[in-house]
Amino acid sequence: MQTRLLPGRYQSVPVIGLGAFAAFNAKSANACRSRWEQIDSFQSRGGRLIDTGSNYGAAPEVVSSFVKDNRDDYLISYHLQAKTRAQGDTLLSRAIELFDVLDTVLIHNQLAIEAHIDGLKIAKARGDIAAIGVSQYLPKSFEKLLPLIRHREIDLVQVPYNPLERTVERQVIPEAEDKKVAVCAVLSPKFDPVFRGLPPETALSGLEQSGINTWFQAVVQWVVSNPSISYVVIDSDDPNLLEEACAVARYPSLDGDMRTYIRLMAEKYAP
């Protein structure tokens, strides 16, 4: 799998991350075993980064139960969703108990960021977390990220990005590159409109040499072929889609013409 060096940090990250929001909120033992198999398969394909969080139900406990014996083999990105500093501190303490060290803590959708940022800086200085980030899933709110980036208050932002949602290219990436803040993308096959209007199979002919056999793979490869994107989190409970993403990420990035072709197909068949 391709890897990227995070801006401002001496750490390489595989370009595909496993989103544990829908897939890992498992409560039964059988469901947990199934999720463990999914993580094992993900790692065998070169994956290391798992995206989980305080608002992910049972997912943190399920993930922790699998990775705890081989913690150094994984990168944990943890979303913190809390309305108050006290609540956030409690959730953060629990996450550190589960994972020992958090590679990234993301303030989810910038909720109560003023209440949490100082505490996260203290935790970072203490060595409990390696990086501070913010997720924002509403493109209309991207402007609120800019002061945090300009003053280098954060190390990473996580935002939606695909051929039909390119706001980040104009509003976030230029500022992030200037300040060496990493930008990671998230793809949600169940919710992103780019996956609702599917081009015919004939539109994908000629893309096989880039490892692309499905429209989902075309979108994934379009995203990771942007060198400004450090990695993309696949938020899906379908293990087959994660396997497709890992498979296509073994291939070299698309050139500009191929990316343009995929973008035009997305626009043509958009719902």
Question: What can you tell me about this protein's structure?
Answer:
- With 271 residues, the protein is of the alpha/beta class.
- The chain has a single domain (3-268), classed as NADP-dependent oxidoreductase domain (TIM Barrel, Alpha-Beta Barrel), CATH 3.20.20.
- It is built from 10 helices and 10 strands.
- The strands form 2 sheets. Strands 3-4-5-6-7-8-9-10 form an 8-stranded parallel beta barrel, surrounded by 6 helices.
- Helix 8 (215-224) crosses helix 9.
- The protein is globular, with a radius of gyration of 18 Å.
- The two termini are 32 Å apart.
- 43% of the residues are buried.
Write the CATH homologous superfamily: NADP-dependent oxidoreductase domain
Number of helical elements = 10
What distance lies between the first and last C-alpha atoms, to the nearest angstrom?
32 Å
Approximate shape: globular
CATH topology: TIM Barrel
User: Beta-sheet strand percentage?
Assistant: 15-25%
Topology as a string of helices (H) and strands (E): EEEHEHEHEHEHEHHEHEHH
Number of domains: 1
How large, in whole angstroms, is the Cα Rg? 18 Å
Structural class: alpha/beta
Largest sheet: 8 strands, parallel, barrel
Proper CATH architecture: Alpha-Beta Barrel
CATH C-level class is: Alpha Beta
Number of E strands: 10
Share of helix among residues? 25-40%
Q: Widest sheet: strand order? A: 3-4-5-6-7-8-9-10
- Uncertain stretches of 5 or more adjacent residues: none
